[in-house]
């Protein structure tokens, strides 16, 4: 693990001065560090845990189990400044697993099944044993084990490949996630989006090189916010550093709050940023800021008091133009939602109803719909009346996701899948099959999965479609164990061993972003890294293809061919297209091998690729004819025809 840390620290970065300072500050002292009192106390605590875990009497079994778990976690992660001790972690988890503890079984499944642990720590690679532990934990509903077992079943990793079994496991976990989300009125706040770290570093590099252009992911929900608030593009264009500089974002928030201009839209922007935890979109990792519900409510109240100076006064104080009135109405809706959910303010359903009613002209229909849906603030529970409010809200702003989601949920509850599809049918809510999210709420992919499962029963969809949707919903609801974000936090503080271990744990669950992160940290061209690149590519992650293309751009054509060849052997159809092009354009060209790769790419390919394939074969045939005529080689035509 130390070698991986050193390799990451010595790798060239885009900013040479920053790299030099970072290396100087983080490099170890030339003298061996001495263990101070804290180390001695830590070692003594470990000995106490070992005694309690392995030598406690029958009357102290509960204490022994707790001690075994703490000892295992400390040994696995190397907490309190210690070095990870995997052998001791295995002993602790084995001791705890004997009692049937699901979490211990899940940890053992990871340690015996992860190729990262096998490669770095020498733990025997035992897929059968890993699957047995995962199965024991999944029977008790353990999240990590359920997702890991589903991922293995979907791709045939150590078990028989079975899409239906994976569908069942993913649906079970997605339903659990959906239930947790519905415990909060309006849906639980989603966890932050999960972007591969190498993509974030690429955006940082591009933003540094060309700060006048905004290099942000096109499907992160940012452009939806563009349509609603002019402040977002304005601030991003003036201050591109906020994309990658957390300290600058904090300073910018303070500067904007201290601005005496009393710009209503600016205060609304700050209130939304502090409420959603990001300057660009709800729970978006890019431009993320710490959530502060209390300060968000203060800023929203500051905006609405320009129109309603007292909370309970009914008459507006002054006339505003249409734009300012729209801003005030949205701030009123935000304030009503915070009162309804008790976020930053004392929960007060009647005050929430007041602000929803006041914002009704522009935005409040959604909040009033929630009051009717749940029977709050003296409203009679009336789902039909709630749907009228939601329909009015989507009519005012067709891109408003929460109202459309409620329409879809209503249709699903009534068994009306046509209505459910209509609620989900909008381009701004189309996730695709990648790890990014336009709208990060977990309910969206779960409902899409149920609709796809219903279509599957009638033969109108494939198992893979429903499985991907349930998988997406299950991965988003990681509130109890945000292991991926534990990895990103460790990576941000340059703790590469901890980051790698956390990403490896998330990769075992089948998370594409985590698989790309593991490959990125393991030296991109090593066999183990290529294995993780391929796993991500199977799930349509694009990082592996970019990595192979980068090798070609650096002048290493053979390395690029080897890279795409590894992906092709894993069944990545796009890799066959790239391989064919590389053989077609190499010096000397190998047209027969190029044709074989194109043929492999066409096998079981979608009908939408027919025109593309025709153009590719036409181009290849023209190259063959031209090459044969130029070199007077008729045998080339015969070899190509028989390939």
UniProtKB/TrEMBL annotation:
Any one Gene Ontology BP term: ERAD pathway
SUPFAM superfamilies for this protein: HCP-like
Domain of life according to the entry: Eukaryota
Annotated organism of origin: Malassezia brasiliensis
InterPro entries: Sel1-like, Sel1_AlgK, TPR-like_helical_dom_sf
A Gene Ontology term for the protein's cellular component: endoplasmic reticulum membrane
Family to which this protein belongs: Belongs to the sel-1 family.
Name used for this protein in its record: ERAD-associated protein
SMART domains hit by this protein: SEL1 (SM00671)
């Amino acid at each position: 693990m130390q070698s991986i840390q050193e390799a990451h620290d010595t790798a060239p970065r885009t900013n040479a001065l920053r790299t030099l300072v970072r290396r100087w500050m983080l490099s170890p002292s030339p003298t061996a560090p001495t263990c101070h009192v804290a180390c001695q106390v830590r070692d003594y605590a470990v000995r106490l845990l070992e005694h309690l875990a392995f030598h406690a009497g029958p009357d102290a079994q509960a204490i022994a189990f707790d001690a075994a778990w703490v000892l295992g976690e400390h040994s696995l992660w190397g907490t309190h400044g210690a070095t990870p001790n995997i052998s001791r972690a295995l002993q602790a988890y084995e001791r705890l697993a004997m009692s049937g503890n699901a979490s211990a079984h899940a940890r053992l499944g990871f340690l015996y099944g992860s190729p990262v642990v096998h490669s770095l720590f020498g733990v025997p690679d035992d897929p059968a044993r890993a699957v047995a532990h995962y199965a024991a934990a999944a029977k008790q509903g353990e999240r990590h084990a359920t997702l890991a077992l589903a991922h293995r079943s979907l791709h045939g990793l150590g078990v028989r490949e079975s899409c239906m079994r994976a569908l069942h496991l993913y649906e079970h976990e997605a339903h659990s996630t959906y239930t947790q989300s519905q415990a909060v009125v309006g849906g639980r706040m989603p966890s932050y989006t999960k972007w591969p770290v190498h993509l974030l570093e690429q955006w940082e590099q591009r933003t540094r090189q060309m700060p006048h252009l905004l290099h942000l992911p096109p499907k992160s929900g940012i452009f939806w916010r563009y349509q609603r608030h002019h402040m977002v593009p304005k601030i991003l264009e003036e201050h591109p550093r906020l994309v990658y500089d957390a300290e600058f974002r904090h300073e910018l928030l303070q500067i904007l709050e201290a601005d005496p201009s009393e710009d209503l839209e600016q205060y609304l922007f700050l209130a939304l940023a502090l409420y959603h935890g990001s300057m660009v979109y709800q729970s978006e990792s890019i431009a993320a800021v710490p959530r502060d519900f209390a300060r968000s409510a203060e800023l929203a109240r500051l905006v609405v008091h320009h129109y309603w100076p007292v909370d309970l006064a009914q008459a507006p104080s002054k006339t505003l133009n249409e734009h300012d009135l729209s801003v005030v109405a949205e701030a009123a809706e935000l304030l009503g939602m915070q009162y309804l959910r008790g976020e930053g303010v004392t929960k007060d359903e009647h005050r929430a109803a007041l602000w929803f009613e006041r914002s009704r002209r522009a935005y409040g229909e959604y909040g009033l719909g929630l009051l009717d849906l749940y029977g709050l603030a003296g409203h009679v529970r009336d789902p039909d009346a709630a749907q009228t409010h939601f329909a009015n809200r989507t009519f005012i702003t067709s891109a408003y996701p929460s109202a459309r989601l409620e329409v879809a949920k209503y249709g699903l509850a009534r068994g009306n899948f046509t209505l459910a599809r209509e609620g989900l049918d909008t381009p701004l809510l189309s996730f695709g099959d990648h790890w990014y999210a336009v709208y990060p709420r977990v309910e969206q992919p779960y409902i899409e999965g149920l609709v796809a499962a219903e279509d599957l029963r009638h033969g109108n969809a494939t198992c893979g479609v429903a499985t991907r949707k349930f998988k997406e919903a299950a991965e988003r609801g990681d509130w109890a164990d945000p292991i991926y974000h534990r990895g990103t936090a460790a990576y941000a503080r340059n703790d590469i061993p901890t980051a790698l271990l956390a990403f490896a744990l998330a990769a075992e669950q089948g998370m594409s972003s985590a698989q790309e992160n593991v490959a990125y940290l393991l030296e991109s061209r090593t066999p183990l890294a290529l294995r993780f690149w391929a796993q991500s590519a199977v799930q349509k992650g694009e990082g592996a293809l970019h990595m192979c293309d980068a090798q070609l751009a650096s002048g290493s054509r053979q390395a690029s061919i080897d890279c795409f060849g590894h992906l092709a052997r894993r069944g990545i159809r796009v890799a066959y297209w790239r391989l064919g092009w590389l053989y077609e354009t190499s010096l000397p060209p190998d047209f027969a091998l190029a044709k074989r790769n194109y043929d492999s790419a066409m096998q079981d390919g979608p009908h939408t690729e027919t025109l593309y394939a025709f153009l590719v074969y036409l181009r290849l045939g023209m190259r063959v004819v031209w090459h044969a005529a130029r070199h007077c080689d008729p045998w080339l035509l015969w070899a190509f025809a028989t390939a």
